[in-house]
Task: inverse folding
């Protein structure tokens, strides 16, 4: 974790209009459009090359900028509302700078570096029986040993996050670990993989529990009545890992798309929730277990965090998480166990970074159904930077266990780690800097590129075999700013001396605007 006593030079004498709102998705119509007429001047300081632009500032003058310095304008949106493109601020004109054209996204192909195409993880909420108030039933206990069979309800129609067709099939215990049972359709030729899965889970589950908290050890007999699983569930307190062909694509295409899923339905007794197995259950796709074992192990950690998250947030604290936040924590769980489990970058969440550095402007901290894979990428990138910048397991544990969700949980967790209050605006400004600054600088800038405990450093400028670093908009490009998102424009290269930037005269008060000099 770094020293955060960084000074920000404010480019206006008037007070800032700081917007705030509750975390409700929507448009930016809750914020005013501010007219900018003022001129602000500041002297460049290489130790603090970050300048905040007031909503009422139209013209910015920076004196003493070295020749060859690159100038950027970043806009961050610290609200859960999208800022429309026509109210986003941009550079209309400039002087003392050689303007730079935007790098075209269409001209950048990462090819094989985008490993995450078509690979999803799914979280399934419980669907309750209409008569659940008095219909709970108890499963009979089974002998937990290899070769024992049992009917398990699994989904057969998962496609791109859709779950719709549950029914029971017969599964066989293929391996038993200290903390888990691995179920497969058949033990023929696959026992070695089942035992390997059990060994991996046993090796990482204690560390995950220490980092994120415990999962629920009970079964709900009604909405408010939870009894110990040891006396109710057929498999007691074991975590059941069910390996099967999710969606049927392994048989039909020889590949897989849904790597795994978790459903809170299984923490409810029969007769209370539909399609329940009444126990701790995680479902992993057979294709990945047999053909991409490292990714299957990473997915197992991912789904286990979802199981823990259900207990820590929904059961213990009575809150329901935003999907991006839950997925971020699950990918951070994968991140934490990557080196411990010997997982390569191509089978870890880092495989999502090429999509982020190319398309980050199109997705903030949200889950866009039309941009599912980018939503994963954006959530992971933010979490990966946040954890490396603010103490690793310390900030992850705070987010996982505090009584809040989403950005409120993030700001509270960072504030706890730093010992002072922080805002979403401040965190997102730091994040934007981490996507611009790299290499040797006098400024102690925020960065992905630092080790923090079990988390390895990430160099955004060395992602893939054709590294480019994040792609930037052009100075005059107008782009919507997604909820808790950012857009960054590279204005150009300073000619030496004073740089003048003239921004458009009107913009939404929801956005915060910064000038970075690199």
Result:
């Amino acid at each position: 974790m770094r020293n955060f006593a960084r000074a920000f030079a404010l480019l206006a004498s008037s007070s800032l209009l700081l917007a705030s709102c509750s975390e409700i998705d929507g448009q930016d119509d809750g914020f005013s459009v501010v007219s900018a007429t003022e001129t602000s001047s500041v002297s460049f300081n290489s130790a603090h090359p970050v300048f905040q632009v007031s909503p009422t500032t139209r013209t910015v003058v920076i004196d003493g900028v070295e020749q060859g310095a690159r100038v950027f304008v970043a806009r961050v949106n610290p609200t859960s509302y999208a800022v429309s493109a026509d109210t986003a601020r941009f550079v209309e004109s400039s002087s003392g700078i050689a303007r730079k054209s935007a790098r075209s996204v269409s001209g950048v192909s990462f090819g094989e570096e985008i490993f995450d195409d078509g690979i999803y993880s799914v979280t399934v909420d419980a669907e309750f029986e209409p008569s659940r108030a008095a219909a709970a039933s108890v499963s009979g206990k089974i002998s937990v040993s290899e070769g024992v069979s049992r009917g398990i309800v699994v989904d057969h129609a998962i496609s791109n996050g859709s779950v719709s067709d549950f029914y029971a099939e017969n599964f066989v215990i293929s391996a038993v670990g200290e903390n888990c049972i691995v179920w497969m359709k058949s033990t023929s030729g696959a026992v070695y993989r089942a035992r390997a899965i059990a060994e991996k889970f046993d090796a990482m589950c204690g560390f995950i529990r220490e980092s994120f908290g415990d999962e629920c050890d009970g079964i709900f007999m009604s909405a408010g009545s939870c009894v110990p699983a040891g006396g109710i569930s057929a498999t007691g307190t074991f975590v059941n890992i069910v390996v099967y062909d999710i969606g049927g694509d392994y048989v039909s295409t020889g590949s897989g798309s849904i790597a795994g899923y978790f459903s809170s339905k299984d923490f409810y007794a029969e007769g209370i929730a539909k399609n329940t197995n009444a126990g701790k259950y995680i479902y992993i796709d057979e294709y990945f277990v047999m053909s991409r074992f490292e990714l299957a192990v990473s997915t197992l950690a991912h789904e286990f965090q979802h199981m823990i998250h259900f207990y820590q947030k929904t059961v213990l604290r009575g809150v329901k998480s935003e999907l991006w936040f839950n997925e971020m924590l699950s990918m951070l769980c994968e991140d934490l166990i990557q080196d411990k489990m010997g997982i390569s970058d191509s089978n870890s969440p880092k495989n999502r970074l090429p999509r982020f550095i190319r398309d980050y402007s199109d997705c903030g901290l949200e889950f866009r159904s039309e941009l599912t894979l980018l939503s994963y990428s954006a959530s992971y990138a933010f979490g990966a930077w946040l954890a490396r910048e603010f103490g690793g397991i310390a900030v992850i544990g705070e987010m996982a266990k505090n009584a809040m969700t989403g950005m409120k949980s993030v700001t509270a967790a960072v504030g706890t780690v730093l010992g002072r209050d922080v805002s979403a605006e401040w965190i997102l400004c730091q994040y934007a800097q981490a996507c611009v600054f790299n290499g040797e600088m006098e400024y102690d800038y925020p960065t992905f590129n630092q080790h923090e405990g079990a988390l390895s450093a990430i160099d955004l400028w060395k992602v893939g075999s054709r590294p480019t670093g994040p792609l930037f908009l052009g100075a005059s490009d107008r782009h919507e700013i997604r909820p808790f998102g950012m857009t960054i424009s590279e204005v150009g290269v300073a000619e030496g001396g004073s740089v003048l930037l003239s921004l458009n005269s009107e913009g939404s008060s929801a956005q915060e605007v910064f000038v970075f000099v690199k």
Residues 293-317 form the longest helix (25 residues). Residues 3-26, 107-115, 128-136 have pLDDT under 50 and may be disordered. The domain at 117-124+142-318 is CATH 3.30.2010.30 (Zincin-like). Residues 381 and 457 are 13 Å apart (CA to CA).
